[in-house]
Design goal:
heterodimer; A: 505 residues; mainly alpha; Sodium/glucose cotransporter; 19 helices; 75% helix; B: 38 residues; rod-shaped
């Protein structure tokens, strides 16, 4: 028999889902062209853009994983809380501001459009980039669906399979209906829910755990290195954050994450270029406060557990357990929505990215250039549906190596996309052959070093650092030994060591 | 000691985000987006 408490939880979550569906339906009315569906008509306002790019970056792992990491490791992993918000600023300033301007003049809808144009390779480089995007995004998506399922199972006590079907249906419906309009506006709601939820909850949890000074004294009593900013050497499973590892962590998160297509494509959707002036500081400042609070909740959870006030079944459950511990039964279901918002906001953006890559980059630009807008939008929706089904089936029995695969995908992103993107934007001598070779060698060596780290010998830095360096060397060497790019390509893509573009050039 | 952390650690952990925010504010002041084409 369903009890009142269960009905209350169902009501809260159902209300949240209804709001998302209303937004999806409203957004669907605005869609007339592919650009409307893929890029919200290039019409996003300042705050919608800021929330979209922050929420696209905020995955389930941001909330559950980084508080869990704080629970286990203490302060040495606080750098994660700086690097992830920083990647949004890096994305806008170093990749986005210039690419969006060129994109506006040249009519890009995706980052692969830029690659195809800059590297005068309408099919080859677009194909390599497209396949990389789809492969890594599907793995990432399986991880996100698993995270959503953890939250829904926790809320309702339903089975993993039921949770996946509910989550998949809801996200699929509003993405299918409203494209980026729906994703942008739902992410604004979700972003606000995360910010308000974390800012309200964290002080309550910290107070309950005895205050910051007490929490830090508890961490120091477990291991004095937990209140420092790096571990001197790897002496335990949790003590991986050595100074040299943190350098590779910076490149992985601050430099690599922001080049992910589901994040960088957002910059092509802004209404005005001038938003790039203050969007970096706005996004970073909001995001960094939320990220610090999330990590400190992890520290607080450890303190509460050490004091015997609460139990945590596993580290990634520390945020959820802390919320349940401090809030009365009548209120905490409202905050479940905060956790749900965090895990859903990346999922929807990645689904749309896969749909757009398959229909726009591969179908329209490589297979059938004569396809009209209606057909492309229809195909995007079909792909989004197919992706929802495939990833849910994969997530029902998630591979045992899921966490490793997700880290692998971020590592591949750093190794595949950053080098051709930066070289393309700022180095006139970067050639098509150099970009292709860098992408292929970056992909291959990321998989190889990831395998070595996991199965052969632990590496001192994150494995992606090695493949990133290989991609840089390959890009430079191959570009220098091949024929320089045509002069008209360099001119029309405004290539050179500058960010601001003078249009009368 | 500040909030149970050594002074140096506290200032690095909380100073770096503030410093980054200031640098991003300076970016906002100097970045010239050029002519809007819409």
């Amino acid at each position: 028999m369903i009890e009142m408490a269960d009905l209350y939880r169902i009501f809260i979550v159902a209300l949240y889902f209804i709001i998302l569906m209303i937004i999806g339906t409203w957004a669907s009315r605005k869609i007339k062209t592919s650009a409307d569906y893929i890029l919200a008509g290039k019409n996003l306002g300042f705050w919608v853009f800021v929330f979209l790019i922050v929420a696209s970056t905020t995955s389930g792992m941001t909330l559950l994983g980084s508080s869990g990491l704080g629970y286990v490791t203490g302060w040495p992993t606080i750098w994660e809380q700086i690097f992830v918000p920083l990647t949004v600023a890096v994305c806008i300033i170093f990749y986005g501001a210039k690419m969006a301007k060129i994109g506006r003049l040249r009519g890009y809808l995706t980052v692969q459009d830029y690659f195809a144009d800059r590297f005068y390779s309408p099919r080859g480089i677009r194909g390599i980039a497209g396949v990389s995007v789809i492969t890594t995004s599907v793995i990432y998506l399986v991880g996100q669906y698993t995270a959503i399922s953890i939250v829904l199972v926790w809320i309702f006590g339903i089975t993993h399979a039921q949770a996946l079907v509910i989550a998949g249906a809801i996200v699929f419906l509003y993405v299918m209906l409203g494209g980026l309009y729906a994703v942008a506006w739902t992410n604004t709601i979700q972003g606000l829910a995360i910010i308000i939820g974390v800012v309200v909850l964290a002080p309550i949890i910290i107070k309950e755990a005895g205050g910051l000074s007490f929490i830090n004294s508890v961490l120091a009593s477990i291991d004095p290195e937990m209140v420092t900013l790096s571990y001197p050497e790897v002496y335990a499973g949790y003590a991986f954050a050595t100074p040299i590892y943190l350098v590779s962590f910076f490149f992985l998160l601050a430099v690599g994450l922001g080049s992910s297509p589901h994040i960088i494509n957002n910059v092509l959707a802004v209404k005005k270029q001038k938003y790039f002036k203050y969007a970096p500081v706005a996004a970073f400042s909001i995001y960094v406060v939320v990220m610090y609070l999330i990590k400190i909740v992890g520290f607080s959870a450890r303190s509460l557990v050490e004091m015997g006030k609460m139990t945590v079944p596993y580290a990634d459950y520390s945020f959820v357990a802390s919320v349940e511990h401090v809030l009365p039964d009548a209120i905490w279901p409202i905050f479940m929505v905060v956790v749900l918002a965090a895990v859903m906001s990346t999922t929807d953006r990645i689904m749309l990215t896969i749909g757009n890559t398959a229909s726009w980059d591969i179908y329209k630009n490589m297979i059938n250039p004569d396809a009209d807008d209606k057909k492309v939008t229809l195909y995007t929706r079909i792909v989004v549906f197919a992706v929802a089904i495939i990833t849910i089936v994969l997530a029902i029995n998630p591979p045992e190596l899921l966490a490793w695969l997700i880290w692998m995908t971020i590592g591949i992103t750093l190794s595949v996309f950053v080098v051709p993107l930066v070289a393309g934007l700022y180095w006139k001598r970067a050639t098509r052959e150099g970009a292709m070779a860098a992408m292929i060698s970056g992909f291959g060596s990321a998989v190889a070093f990831g395998y070595i780290h996991k199965y052969v010998t632990a590496l001192p830095m994150h494995f992606s650092m090695y493949s990133f360096i290989i991609a840089i060397v390959v890009m430079i060497v191959v570009s220098l030994v091949t024929k320089p790019p045509p002069a008209d390509v360099i001119e029309r893509t405004f290539t050179g060591p500058f960010i601001s573009i003078k249009e009368d050039k | 000691m500040i909030i149970g952390l050594e002074d140096r650690i506290f200032y690095i952990a909380f100073g770096i985000p503030v410093l980054i925010a200031i640098l991003l504010l300076i970016w906002g002041r100097i970045y010239n987006p050029g002519k809007e084409d819409d």
